[in-house]
Write a structure and sequence with these properties.
Blueprint lengths: L5 H11 L5 E4 L5 H10 L4 E4 L5 H20 L25 H8 L8 E6 L3 H10 L8 E6 L5 H12 L3 E4 L10 E4 L5 E9 L2 E9 L11 H12 L3 E5 L8 H9 L3 E5 L8 H8 L5 E3 L1 H12 L1
Parallel strand pairs: 1-2, 3-4, 3-9, 4-6, 5-6, 9-10, 10-11
Antiparallel strand pairs: 7-8
Amino acid sequence: MPIVDGLKALSRIMKNYPTPVVMISVLGKRAEEITLKALEYGAVDVIQKPEGILSQKMPEMAEEICRKIREAAKTNLENLEFMKYHKMENLEINEKPGEKEKRKSQQKKASARHVLAIGASTGGPRALEKLINSLPVDFPAAILVVQHMPAGFTASLSKRLNSTSALRVKEAKEGDIVKEGIVLVAPGNYHMEIVQKKIKGFEKEVVHLSCGPKELGSRPSVNILFRSVASIYGHRVISLILTGMNCDGADGSEDVKKKGGKVIAEARSSCVIYGMPGEIVKRKLADFVLPLDKMAEEIIKIVS
């Protein structure tokens, strides 16, 4: 682009003329960084332009572009704000570099008494940041996240959330043990399930990753995560559906309800896209329908 690049143009558009924007770009080696920065500046979504001869790959791109533009047209502009990083609120006075991470690692991590399972899609990175930053370091539940993102991008998202949160946030790996106070984010292009496994003679709940068929067009799938935690944790599960298109998470939430768990849907007032939470409300599965800024308080009440 002449004069300014796409990110600078996006920041000016969102500052002066807020508009739903889908960015299409050759992202290259800085793909994850550019994508998160674009979402920070207010883009609804980012599509990576394929490398090589563009014309040969346009037919497969066309469907994705059309779908994401249709999604963008339905966004709530009031909720397409810049992500706000309140770094000073998460640091103690005179805290030295590295001390925050040391505090996180020293915090005693117990096997999970409760599990907060979160599903999100379009608009999810902003929502996840606000929610996870609102939870205390001694939060008495494990947190499992499925955010619809391509492979590679979830690692950068996890690092960014970890840098702003009191909790430890990491991209999940095969065999990770589910523990209180730790946030595990499903890696892009992998389904994440929780399974039971005997470790040193003790039964533990651990992460299992797979490249099985996409469900409702998504991998990772919110439904697959929700079903797995419902079968193990039963009434100790809180399933939370944040902003996003389509209905991923609704079938899994039905399983959570059948096992006695709680279901929370994000209210339309704070959603970028009301598709996924709207389906929860439509099926009458929600125990609570809450705007983003009211969720942490209610979740803490449930698990305390």
